[in-house]
């Protein structure tokens, strides 16, 4: 029933990848487009690493582990250990097979191919039939303003284990960046747009900082369903709670609703977690369901609910 719906998913990393797997079980591959955050991209060992693009790509290729969700299942780390021995920093763990992706991506980028084309090539090589688009071909970088100064995102998250107190988030390069080819068409042409249960500040936020993408999302508000990443006052993954508090917001669904007020008409929250201020004007409508995707079937169940919520009302 949902297979011929055109669906566009705005995605960060692991939570989004799980939902993408769920959606892929219900929607025809050619009808599913995933627009992915590239604010976390970083250079390691001279290579261009796009963690969120890879997390989505490996997940849809059936190569990612369900948990922790990133990297390649059963990858080995021979190169990492060899690099360590040669004095290289190795706090960002890149597996051997994963490294091949970064080598190939860096090579193609250095030949002048845009990130969107390289991503399409990598997806085709790995047998991914859904369309994965970087949010932009331009360099946009998420920088955390913290108690110990400005830190590139991976430095804050992985090297320092999200310990520095967050005071704000800067999305560098966003004002000059444009959406990658196909992104606006995917948003405008979708029957339903879904915002994944990713971090609204550092996963979805960078996408909405790209002006034309943000405007397209504002116009698509009526058909957009967002999923809150908060369950029981905690983020399913990552340091969202401390980030929200750091920017002076409460870590609750009311804050998520206010962040998405202009781009989503429905906010899906975990069961019994709709905020009391249910009907604030201009806010998305709340819908409650099981949002925890502990396995593939849980992801499919959430995906089905989202597709039902995004269905146009029956006539007559
Ligand atoms: N996250 C970690 O916590 N530690 C790592 O060593 C690490 C390596 C890594 C390698 C490739 C990749 O695609 C992702 C990786 N991640 C790692 C995850 C990544 O830092 C974040 O989950 C995302 O950037 C946030 O969406």
Describe it for me?
The chain is of the alpha/beta class and 316 residues long. The chain has one domain: CofD-like domains (Rossmann fold). Helix content is 37%, strand content 19%. It is built from 12 helices and 14 strands. The strands form 4 sheets. Strands 5-2-1-9-10-13-14 form a 7-stranded parallel sheet, with helices on both faces. A 3-stranded antiparallel sheet has the order 7-6-8. The chain has a two-stranded antiparallel sheet with strand order 3-4. Strand 6 and strand 7 (149-152) form a beta hairpin. The radius of gyration is 19 Å and the shape is globular. The mean pLDDT is 95. Bound molecules: ligand FO1. Ligand FO1 is lined by residues 12-14, 40, 51-52, 54-55, 70-71, 92-94, 98, 154, 157-158. The site of ligand FO1 has 17 residues, from helix 2 and helix 6.
Low-confidence stretches: none
SS content category:
alpha/beta
Q: Which CATH first-tier class would you pick?
A: Alpha Beta
Q: Strand portion, in percent?
A: 15-25%
> What is the makeup of the main sheet?
7 strands, parallel
Element pattern in H and E: EHEEEHHHHEEEHEHEHHEEEHHEEH
The CATH architecture can be named as 3-Layer(aba) Sandwich
Q: How many domains?
A: 1
Q: What average pLDDT do the residues reach?
A: 95
Tell me the radius of gyration: 19 Å
Q: How many DSSP helices?
A: 12
Shape: globular
What small molecules does the structure contain?
ligand FO1
Question: What's the total count of β strands?
Answer: 14
CATH fold-level assignment = Rossmann fold
CATH-defined superfamily:
CofD-like domains
Helix content: 25-40%
């Amino acid at each position: 029933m949902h297979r011929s719906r055109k669906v566009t998913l705005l995605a960060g990393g692991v939570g989004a990848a799980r939902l993408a797997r769920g959606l892929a079980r219900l929607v025809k591959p050619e009808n599913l487009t995933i627009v992915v955050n590239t604010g976390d991209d970083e250079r390691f060992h001279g290579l261009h690493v796009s963690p969120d693009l890879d997390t989505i790509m490996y997940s849809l290729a059936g190569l990612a582990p369900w948990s922790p969700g990133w990297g390649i299942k059963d990858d080995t780390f021979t190169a990492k250990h060899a690099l360590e021995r040669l004095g290289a920093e190795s706090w960002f763990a890149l597996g051997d097979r994963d490294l091949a992706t970064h080598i190939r991506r860096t090579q193609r980028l250095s030949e002048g191919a845009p990130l969107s084309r390289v991503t399409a090539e990598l997806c085709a090589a790995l047998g991914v039939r859904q369309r994965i688009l970087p949010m932009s071909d331009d360099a946009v970088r998420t920088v955390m303003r913290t108690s110990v100064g400005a830190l590139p995102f991976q430095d804050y998250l992985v090297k320092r284990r999200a310990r520095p107190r967050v005071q704000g988030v800067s999305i560098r390069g966003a004002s000059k960046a444009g959406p990658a080819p196909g992104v606006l068409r995917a948003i405008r042409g979708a029957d339903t747009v879904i915002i994944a249960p990713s971090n609204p500040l550092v996963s979805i936020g960078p996408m909405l900082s790209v002006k034309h993408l943000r405007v397209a999302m504002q116009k698509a508000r009526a058909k957009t369903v967002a999923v809150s990443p908060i369950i029981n006052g905690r983020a399913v993954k990552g340091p969202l709670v401390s980030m929200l508090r750091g920017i002076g917001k409460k870590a609750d669904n009311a804050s998520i609703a206010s962040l998405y007020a202009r781009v989503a008409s429905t906010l899906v929250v975990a069961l019994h977690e709709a905020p009391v201020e249910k009907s604030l004007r201009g806010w998305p409508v709340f819908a409650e369901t099981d949002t925890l995707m502990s396995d593939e079937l849980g992801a499919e169940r959430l995906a089905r609910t989202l597709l039902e919520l995004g269905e146009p009302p029956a006539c007559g």
